[in-house]
Amino acid sequence: MSLRILGMLAAGTLAALASSAAQAATEVDFWHAFSPDIKLGKVLTRYVEEFNASQDDYKVVLTYKGTYDDTVNATIAAYRAGKQPAIVQVQANAAPTLIFSSAIKPVDDVMAEAGIEVDWSRYLEPVMAMYRYKGKQMAMPFNTSTPLMWYNADAFQKAGIDKIPATWTELEAAARRLKAAGYPCPVTSAWQEWVLLKNYAFVQDLPLATEGNGMDGPDARLVFNHNGVVEQLARIGRWSKEGLFEYQGRQWTGAHQAFYAERCAVLLESSAGYGGISQNAKFKFGAAVLPVEEGTKTPRNTFIGGAGLFVMKGLDKAVYDGAAAFFKFLSAPELQFDWHRNSGYVPITVDAYELARKQGYYEKFPHQELAIKELLRQPSENTRGIRLGYLVQIDEILNEEMEKIWSQEKSAQQAADDMVRRADPLLARFAKTVAD
Amino acid sequence: MAIRGKDVVFKGRALPWLLLAPQLLVLAVFFFWPAGRGIVEAFFLSDPFLDRSIYVGLDNFRALFASPEYWDSVWLTLRFSAATTLLSMSVALALAVAADRVLRRSLLLRSLVIWPYAVAPAIAGMLWLFLFHPAFGVLALALRDLGVGWNPLLDGGDAMLLIVAAAAWKQVSYNFVFFLAGLQAIPASLIEAAAIDGAGPARRLRDLVLPLLGPTSFFLLVMNVIYAFFETFGIVDAITGGGPGGATRLLVYKVYKDGFQAQDLGSSAAQSIVLMVIVVALTILQFRFVEKRVSYA
Fold first, then answer.
1. What does the entry give for GO biological process (chain B) (predicted)?
2. A52 touching B (Cβ < 8 Å)
């Protein structure tokens, strides 16, 4: 081959390389579960557009995949076919499946390989802990919420309640007054297993399962049928019998509707419920932190809900670098503050929290700070998170057995024993599917 | 070559296979392949990404049969299917008899009755929920004002009633079409002859119309049972989510929930096989015992 031809070839290749780099930035697929029709979806779209416009190397391609379940299922199918997205939004109850699998690339590795240093200590600890396994950050937290106690302030006034209940005993006394003032449903809760069971155990520092609630490994077993959780279940069961608590279904719709209709005066529900409540409540409402047990010296941090962003294995380095750059973009304090304001979710970094405080945001929206305060409490071994295999089925079991307590079909002890009896074989089966 | 009786035989093997190929291909790709995968999965414990699959023999089945909650699901599915089939077929028959007598020529009204069949199960569920949810259902709130204790969120019986009603409502129109066609296929002269012999409407229905509808009814029985077993998970998902306390946890809903939400593929596959065996057994029973009493004359 003559030098001239070689030179021509080289020039051609160079030109081709240059033009392809100019035309096509590396595409980073991001699958998520926020409908583009709702505010959350619109806000997310705006962030992606801003990121894409801010640089030329990467282009994040946002795809709405339906519900959280749809998104995970689509990701699993895509992974099996070798067509997985780079980033996928996964709800907390499906997170263990991904964390224990070998299908993801830990976010720590993604950031390190892209040469981006992250100071995880500037992130909210309970939020990060949820996605940390064997010392590694497995996912990037994204939309994070935690439950609060929402109340109808007009109803409190009508019932003559001056002090916002801070303990479960005080809440019971308030509930009796509300009942006497004509409220057929003094207290209700959305997402009962999350709020009344898991979060109760967190605040009271009670273990739910061995292995640090499964955070240290898949070989966990439930243990809460021998601790204070049973008394809590018995209490709500008794309230249900006396008409102080009215069950409105497993998710949030029923509880919200009953709260808006002023049938229920206290709604235990996610901090992210603010959007719906502020739009629909035709009365003065307020929020407070979740009640604690009488005499609790150090209430612990609450348990988070929401979703994190996972990075799938098996893609090119350039794609991972793009994902890393996007995560860095998402974590900026200004953006996190914007997300906090627009979504009702908590910011994931302390810097964003301080920025919001400095700008006086919480003077106008005090409830937004309550969730962060709950999360910033001193954590313990029992409150790092919950990571149980087949969690969807286990939550189903918890829901079923709780309903049997509310309907007085089972005693709290019997139901708690049955939760453990039914869930442990599932946990044992799941542990077998996890490679060491 | 002489053609003798029925002995017409194609020579060569290629042509028949070639003609069958498109159909077989469709069956293979969309039925045998996935169904075969499902059967294999039932004997494995896998992580959803299939990075790790362990052969566990019959463990998935053993775990099911050892769970009292699974047996609850079996019984309540049988009850649900019987109730749904009975309700949807009897309402459809009543409507068809009424329509046959009065609306013989009104295509419009007959078409209206068919509408619910076109509604997707999840949407049908939502419609019923908007009527009967204790917190915001229009009819549920009216019931509460009347002092009727209606609470499908905690009362398993109420919840079961609700999904039976929703599932049956959706199927009524399908049954109606077949019953109406069956009724209109009965020659008017036969009915007239019976009337001249002095048989009243009730008598004519019992001794003439119903026996003549036998084949239609049998077909609908088989179809409705299959519908109740396989196609109702959308309704359960929208209305009760299997609650309260598992009172409406139908087998097919559990297959869906465990497989597609909890990613417990092995158990979900084993459950599908159990469900299939139950339905095949029921269908065989129907053919052996019910069909014998059907006259196709």
1. transmembrane transport
2. no
pLDDT band at A19, cuts 50/70/90? very low
Where do you find CATH 1.10.3720.10 in chain B? 67-293
pLDDT-based confidence at B6, cuts 50/70/90? low
Report ipTM for this prediction.
Answer: 0.85
- Amino acid B124: pLDDT: 85
pLDDT of residue A11: 53
Contacts B242 to A, Cβ<8 Å? 396, 400
Q: Closest chain A residue to B51 measured between Cα atoms?
A: A102
Q: Note whether A422 and A354 are same-domain residues.
A: no
Q: Are residues A99 and A163 in the same domain?
A: no
Q: How far apart are CA A158 and CA A160, in angstroms?
A: 5
Q: Give the per-residue pLDDT at A1.
A: 44
Give the CATH number, domain containing residue A202. 3.40.190.10
Contact B176, B99 (CB under 8 A): yes
Q: What letter does residue A344 receive in the DSSP assignment? A: -
Q: Does A255 touch chain B (CB under 8 A)?
A: yes
Same domain membership, residue A205 and residue A132: no
pLDDT interval class at A117 (50, 70, 90): very high
What is the Cα Rg of chain A in Å? 24
Give the pLDDT score at A95: 92
Return the residue of A nearest to B266 by Cα. A429
B45 touches chain A (CB under 8 A): yes
Inter-residue contact B159 to B248 (CB < 8 Å):
yes
Category of A129 on φ-ψ map: left (φ > 0), alpha (ψ -120 to 50) or beta: alpha
**Selected residues 115-134 of chain B with any CB under 8 Å from a CB in chain A:** 133-134
CATH annotation of B67-293: 1.10.3720.10
- How far apart CA A272 and CA A194 sit, in angstroms, is 14
Residue A69, chain B, CB below 8 Å: the answer is: yes
State whether A248 and B153 contact (CB < 8 Å): yes
> Would A376 be classed as within a structural domain?
no
Distance, in Å, from the CA atom of A149 to the CA atom of A187, rounded to the nearest integer, reads 10
Q: What is residue A433's predicted lDDT score, i.e. its pLDDT?
A: 87
Nearest in space to B177 (alpha carbons), one of B222, B116, B231: B116
pLDDT tens sequence across B53-91: 899 999 999 999 999 999 999 999 999 999 999 999 999
Q: Does residue A266 sit in helix, strand or coil?
A: strand
Question: Could you say which of B69, B136, B243 has the minimum Cβ distance to residue A422?
Answer: B69
Q: In this structure, are A156 and A139 located in the same domain?
A: no
- Asked if A9 reaches chain B (Cβ–Cβ under 8 Å), the answer is no
Q: Which residue in A285, A166, A226, A289 sits closest to A420, CA to CA? A: A226
Closest CB to B52: pick one of A73, A429, A433: A433
Pairwise CB contact (< 8 Å): B263 & A409: no
Buried b / exposed e across A184-209, counting CB within 10 Å, b at 16+?
A: ebbbbbbbbbbbbbbbbbbbbbbbbb
Helix residue ranges, H only, chain B: 14-27, 33-41, 59-65, 68-102, 107-114, 121-132, 138-145, 156-184, 188-196, 201-204, 210-212, 214-230, 233-239, 251-256, 265-285
Number of structural domains (chain A) is 2
The residue segments making up the domain with residue A287 are 147-303+389-433
Classify residue A11: in a domain, yes or no.
no
A348, part of any domain = yes
Q: Which residues 89-128 of A have a C-beta within 8 angstroms of B?
A: 94, 97, 100-103
Q: What pLDDT sits at residue B5?
A: 54
Interface A–B counts its CB contacts (< 8 A) at 110
Domain end (from A314, A331, A364): A364
By 3-state DSSP, what share of chain A in percent is helix, strand and coil, each rounded to 5? Answer: 55, 15, 30
The pLDDT value given to residue B103: 64
